[in-house]
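Justification of resources, computational component.

The compute hours requested in this renewal are based largely on the per-chain cost of generating structure records like the one below. Each record pairs the submitted sequence with a full structure-token output. That output is archived, and it is also reused by downstream analysis tasks.
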Amino acid sequence: MREIEIESASGRLSATIFDSSQARAVLVIASATGVKQSFYKKFATYISAHNITVITFDYYGIGHSLQQPIKEITCNAADWGRKDLESVLRYAIHNFPDSKRYVLGHSIGGQLIGLSKSALKMDKLVLVAAQSGYWKFWQGIGRTRMWCNWHLLFPILLNLFGYLPSKRISGMENLPKNVAKQWSNWGKRSAYVFSEIPIAQTVYHEFESEITTISIEDDRFAPKKAVDWMTEKYTKAQKKPIHVVPSNFNTREIGHFGIFKERFKDNLWPLLLQELQ
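The structure output for this chain reads:
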């Protein structure tokens, strides 16, 4: 494992390479919103032990890629895809020219892949709980909660603090103002990302390689309908959907983040590894 920095149009990104001695492929992990790359460390170590080099990174303004006061960060959510993920994919292409190239996008990490032009040079995508955040995809109290997040909570907190103090709310990393503002604007509209960025200006509709999409039965942050909606935007890809039910893996809950936790190294991690092999 070695820590590096990758230059993005946003600024310098903190990244980690989990080297594999006999690597035949390289995997870039695109994190969920407000989740530091260290969250995926044990999973990345597991994958690298199976002949796949892994690269994790922090988006600009998150974790070790936050190198100035958060109120001074001007990047938005789309920049995480167009600039940050794009720079990491270019790094993988340049430094591992003879390897197969994969991307695993978790939550917003899977949403933003289509904003990175270099995604077209990837051999496969694995999208884990990569969903639309449009509030009407939720039901019952979940729908009310999402509406309140986008229309009330985010605007109030952004105006009060000048950034989103996620650590106080959910334990996730704080979000720069423009990231949280754009994310909430997307969540208010049925077209989500494409309410601000026409799909013709992205590569979602151009990607033709394989995609495995994973939804999780008890994921309150990514209902299956929201995951299916995002998957459909990759119109030309060879898609393989997998719906994970906790009881099939001898557990009561998995949720939005559980799939990457070490307690699933003997059942869910092999499932993900199989999709990468």
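The longest strand covers residues 12-18. The longest helix spans residues 140-161.
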